[in-house]
Amino acid sequence: MANVFEVLEKDHDEVKSMMAELETGSPPAREGESRRTPGRKQLVDQLIMEESKHEAVEEQYFWPVVRELVPGGHELADEAVRQEQKAKFTLEDLIGYQPGETRYEQMLTGLIQEAREHIAFEEERVWPELRLVLSPERSVELGTKIERAKKMAPTRPHPHTPPNPGLLKATSPLVGAADRLRDLVTGRARH
Ligand SMILES: [Fe+2]
Ligand SMILES: [Fe+2]
To answer: What residue stretch is flagged as signal peptide (predicted)?
Structure first.
């Protein structure tokens, strides 16, 4: 079974590769385009969905453990959650993304840069500290919880919901279900 670092790293790697693909500039969506070569809008949608789910489950399960176990964990978690909140507002704006529009492309460029910095903050500043204090058993337990929660997590960023772990845990499955239904209706879930 995967531990929490392996679970989160898999997500980070996925996001990093989507961002790299967006930077190289995949072509705009076309009618009948194959699923294996998603267009730019589809790729942005995927990035929004992936990041929304990832940050939601970190806020529910990961940051509370950092706060509990890591010396100086509150400061690290506060900074990371601040970065995540900021990103959620940009992700929300990007939902209306249309490839090629200057405003959106600029937003996307900014998001990619900040997402890289955020991932580096987590992997380089937080993970090494947590590795020192998290037992292997608890690491696997946390990884399992995160993997499970991600299946039901919101696929939209919800920047106006306070990043309170208890509140998010209580509302996440409902909000996630509503998001998935909306994804289905709008065709967003097809990609
Ligand atoms: Fe994060
Ligand atoms: Fe992360």
So the answer is: none
